[in-house]
Design goal:
It contains nine helices and 13 strands. It is of the alpha+beta class and 374 residues long. The N terminus and C terminus are likely disordered.
């Protein structure tokens, strides 16, 4: 049976930052100890794979993409640039090809041509780039996460199995359920503020394709921030969700605990987990946001890099079900972010800072919250 993956849209949600339509309760300061104890237990953060688990795959997927984004495709591996050399980075290539996003055939023809001209771009990398750039199908009125289209702009990468217990907390070594952690990426032609505005617009989830939500809310008291002992800011909130499954399964849900922070390299990272409850053996994941720029520093888009896994108790899930959940999470947020984004002459830095906070509601009572009963 098909898992109702729309619940898992909420799996990688972040601290809200800008939304013109929904005011959010203000973040409340808490101590670092309280933050880690009551709001986001760092032991539940999704671990990186060990070398044994990764096998031939990259252990650090973000580092792998960072190398790809900063490589000079106009330079053959192992050669040195001459005085007249003109570097071509990923951002330059995306900026050149993005105008063809709605015309898959033309875009792939142009990408094939550029592959022949660029000695630093391999065939497998050209395939990956084609998957990322061809996103016209995602914006069709009839698109749903169940569609595994070649033109949805979502790149599915090989998954890994979390079986190695070395160096991991007991929360992970003693958990039950399936071991699969999915990996995916998408290009978002918008800024961080637009992405998080799309994530935190609770009423909009009921307008998304194939949704089966009964309730989506952000409890006001869950929105907190704290400074780590090193002085870094962390934000947290809860996405509380109730959804239903097709017969004979009933409703299910829980609290998705999310944490927004900066990695040591300045990239924004958004993490989620759901501790074991009656419905889930486990759920955890992270999004990392890599700004893509041209060789001369012009911002082009965000590359959103996702790792995510879950096991819903008592419901059989296939690899296809899990990938549908990824398409739901990434696809709907990409659509929402690009719809909200307005190009600006001077865009705020997309690295080295947390997204700007929204205009926050004065009331501490609620949400935003939505349910089918509203």
């Amino acid at each position: 049976m098909m898992l109702c993956s729309t619940f898992l849209l909420l799996a990688l949600q972040g601290a809200a930052d800008r939304d013109a339509s929904v005011a959010l309760p203000a973040y409340q300061p808490v101590s670092w100890a309280e933050f880690c104890r009551d709001h986001f237990d760092p032991d539940w953060a999704l671990p990186l794979p060990t070398e044994k688990e990764a096998g031939k795959l990259p252990v650090d997927l973000v580092a792998w993409f960072q190398e790809f984004a900063t490589r000079d495709f106009n330079l053959a591996p192992g050669t040195e640039a001459g005085p007249e050399h003109r570097p071509i980075l990923l951002g330059d290539l995306i900026a050149e090809l993005a105008p063809y996003r709605e015309d898959t055939k033309r875009l792939l023809e142009e990408l094939d041509r550029r592959e022949q001209e660029l000695p630093g771009l391999s065939k497998s990398e050209r395939r990956n780039l084609g998957e990322l750039l061809c996103d016209g199908g995602l914006f069709h009125k009839k698109w749903t996460p169940a569609d595994n289209r070649r033109d949805d702009g979502i790149l599915h990468l090989p998954s890994w199995e979390m079986k190695d217990k070395t160096g991991r907390s007991t929360l992970w070594t003693e958990r039950s359920g399936d071991d699969t952690v999915l990996r995916a990426a998408t290009l978002v032609f918008a800024d961080l503020e637009s992405w998080f505005a799309a994530e935190n617009d609770c009423p909009s989830y009921f307008d998304q394709p194939d949704n089966r939500f009964e309730k989506v809310e952000i409890p006001a008291q869950s929105r907190v921030f704290a400074k780590s002992p090193e002085g870094d800011e962390y934000r947290a909130q809860i996405f509380r969700v109730v959804s239903d499954l097709p017969f004979p399964f009933g409703t299910y849900g829980g609290d998705n605990r999310v944490r927004l922070s900066l990695r040591p390299d300045g990239l924004v990272m958004n993490e989620v987990y759901m501790a074991k409850n009656k419905d889930f053996h486990w759920l955890a994941g992270r999004d990392v946001f890599l700004p893509i720029r041209t060789q001369d520093g012009r911002f082009v888009c965000l590359l959103v890099i996702q790792e995510f896994g879950f096991d819903l108790d008592g419901v059989p899930e296939s690899d296809g079900n899990r990938k549908e959940a990824v398409r739901a999470a990434l696809g709907n947020k990409k659509r929402g972010a690009e719809m909200r984004f307005r190009p600006q002459a001077e865009l705020a830095p997309q690295r080295g800072r947390l997204p700007r906070r929204a205009v926050e509601a004065e009331s501490s009572a609620a949400a935003p919250a939505s349910s089918r009963d509203r």
